[in-house]
Every structure is written in C-alpha cells, then in structure tokens.
Amino acid sequence: MSKKPNEMTITEAARALRLPACRQARLTVRELWDACANTAKEKNPELNAYLEIFDADEIAIISAQERIDAGEESLLCGIPLAVKDNILIEGKIASAASKMLENYRATYDATVIAKLKAAGALFIGRTNMDEFAMGSSTEHSAFGMTKNPHDTSRVPGGSSGGSAAAVAGDTVIAALGSDTGGSIRQPAALTGLVGLKPTYGAVSRSGLIAMGSSLDQIGPLTKTVEDARIVYETIKGSDPMDSTTIPEDLYPACEVHQKLRIGIPRHLLNESVTAEVQSAFDETLTKLESAGHTLVDIELPTSSHALAAYYVIMPAEASTNLARLDGMRYGHAARGETLLADYLQSRTEGFGEETRRRILLGTFVLSSGYIDAYYRKADASRAVLRREYAQAFAQVDVIAFPTTLAPAFKFGEKSDPISMYLEDIFTVTANLTGMPAISVPMGAVERPSTSLGTGETKQLPIGFHITAPHQAENVLFAAAAEVEKVHSS
Description:
The protein has 15 helices and eleven strands. The chain is α/β, with parallel strands linked by helices. The protein folds into two domains: 5-235, Amidase signature (AS) enzymes (Alpha-Beta Complex), CATH 3.90.1300.10; 261-310 and 372-488, Amidase signature (AS) domain (Amidase signature (AS) enzymes), CATH 3.90.1300.10. A hairpin with an 8-residue loop joins strand 10 (437-448) and strand 11 (457-467).
C-alpha cells in the first residue's frame, strides 16, 4: 500500500517530487504542502503539537517547484518542516512556549532557518515545547500540553515534544528541535523517531532562544537515520554570528569501520531501567553482534554523577540567560505600585512554575558562598567526563545504552520534579561533554491505554542511544543505520 504524501520520509518525498511529469506517482510541492497542512490542522486540536500552523507561502512553494523542475539537487527543496518555538523565523512569533515572550515576533532568521530556506525547505508551523525548553514531557508549556500520537494519555517527551509529535503524527515530514540535556533524543525515543544532537558547535546557535549556552544544540527529528543526516548536512557549519561554532578543520575526519566496536557501560544499567527496556536493549545488542559488530564492556565511573552536575550547570546558565527578561528591557511587562512590584509581577506572570524553580536554583548555585561548593565543582566534572570518554573511545567506535529508563509515561505521573529530572539520566552526558549523540527506535513495549477506556493496550516506542567522539557524526550515522537495519530485517 502506497504512503500518503505526509507519511513519507524526506528521501521518499524528494524522489516523488522528481519523478517525470508523465508518471502517475509524481508529487508536486503544492500537493505535499497541502497533505501536511491539512493533516496538521485536522490532528492538532487533539495533539496540540503546534502553537501556530502557518499559511501557505505561495511564493516559496512556486519557487521550490521551479527549482525542482530545473534539477535542484538539495533533497530538502519543497519539503515541509516544523520548527520548535524557540528557533527564530523572521516575521513569525517565537515565544518559547511562554507568556513572557507570547507576543515576541522575530526580526531575523536563525542561521539554521536561513540555511534551510536557501535549500528550498518550507516551514509549516512552530511547535509546542516545555517553556524555555525546561522540561522532559512538554507538560510545562504555557499553552497546554502536547500529547503522544501513539497514546494520547501519555507524554511525547520534551522539551521538543511538539516537534516530535508533529513528525510522529505524520503532520510534517521532519522537524527541528533543540537539545540541552536530551530534549531531542528523549522525545524521539518516546515517539518512535530518530533524534540527533550534533557535536557542540557543529550547528550554529544564532537565533536560538538560549537556555544553557554551553549545552544547547539545534538538531533534527526525523523518521529515518538518512533523513537526519540530510538535515544535519544542510544546517551544520561555522557561523560568524556564533563564536562557538567549530572551524571545519578543527577535528580530523574519523574513519568509519565496516564492523563497529560498540562500548557498553553495563554498570550504569541498574534496576532503574525497566525490564522491557533492558530486554529490548539486550536483544538489539545481540542482533548487532550477530551482524558482525563487537561488543566491548567499558567503565565510565563519573557518568553516574553526570545528572547531578547537569542540574547545577544548566539552571545556573538558564538563570543568567533569562535575567534579561525582567519586564523592563524585554518580555512581559506588568506594572505594580513600586519598581520592585513591577519586577515581581512581570516575572511571576511571565514565567511558569518550572522556569521559576530553575531560575531560583541557578541563582542559588551562583551566589556568593555557594558558587565554589556547587557550580565550580560541577563544571570541573565536565573535564573528568571528557577524559573518561576519550579513554573509552580509544577502545571503541561508539558507546551505547537505552535512551530512556522506560517508555512514555502518563500525564501527571511525574509531578515530583526529581522524578522528572531522572528522565535525562542517560542523555545529559553528551551535552556536558559536547559529543554528538543520536536516538534510534529499538522496537516497542506494550502498556495499557487509559485514553481508550476499554482495557486495550498500546505499543509504545523506545530508543537506542549512541554516542560518538567529537565531530564523528559520520560514525554516529553509520552505527545508527546498523541499528535501523537490524530492526527492519
């Protein structure tokens, strides 16, 4: 049975767009746009994946079709994409799903958006997220929670949950998210997608509303590993607008071995990993070993402390970045009887509970008397983590573990902030060290669905997480493709 246009991958849609005009299966850019836009409008009232679905840009659609007809090589030409609400698109609102920036309209394009526009990509809408990217479930948006297309009683993950739900719900071909501690990879795992966090500095952060400046990275959420590679190759590269982007020649090219050495830190896979996830992970490793790849047990002793370090560094950077949103210079402005009341009222109304919690925590760990005890020790641990991973990569090509401890959880199930923070336990290390990482689907587990009310069950996706050395995305894609292959055979 042939796929509908909105259900296609980037490679499938690009192929259909380039068929000869005489072929019945030929797809036009307008048909692809309409299929995605109509599905998005139909499903969004239930999923709440989008905060805004854009009107068709007729000039961009016509231009993309003309470029394809003229032999345009970029596979993203004419492809509709969704964009997380913290990435600037000129003329469009970018609220970071907050009341604080509810009416902010971008005056310029983020560098990644400019590159995608140059490639001929189209933008179908801005997607929901945890406010200022602070969350792991997209329950903390100021504009309502996003639902998982696989089971609407469960979360899609976060903070890029809107982008994940948009792609998993077949309302768009692919999407952009941002990843500070797992915010692309975790929702990708919970919705059955491929999610990539590139090497820190491989993709420009210019035009991304910052949360943790030394941690944030923009990356794709796609239906296949090849699609993730296509988007990454388009948006990567040094940028004079972002001094942290990496010069092209900083790292030597990594050799991709036909048979990979896969490092497994089994000491990190404790009882907190559910039995079904552990079983699926072990089964995937067995399949990879049967395909000729080598499994190597490795030790990463400091990784067990990475989550604690992350939840010191990230709030500290977030509190600094959000200090400018005070109702005076930027952001929601409320007026009280005094200047202090202005500040208090603006920030209380503009920021949600989780954002306020992290600002307070970050301000505390940076305060006099505590910065040495908390922030500087946490920051020093990053160098230790980098050394441990460098030693491990001397023995192996990539390192693997499950993306999450369990499949998607129900709304309200993790009301305790600490239990929510534990969702990032396997993903934060890649952000602390700056290494690239990817989540690839590794099957599904069965869970009862409360949304059906009939005792029926749903198949909930889970993810296989892979980390590679800095700027070794080629190795990462090769390993991810192998996981994809063993699960498709």
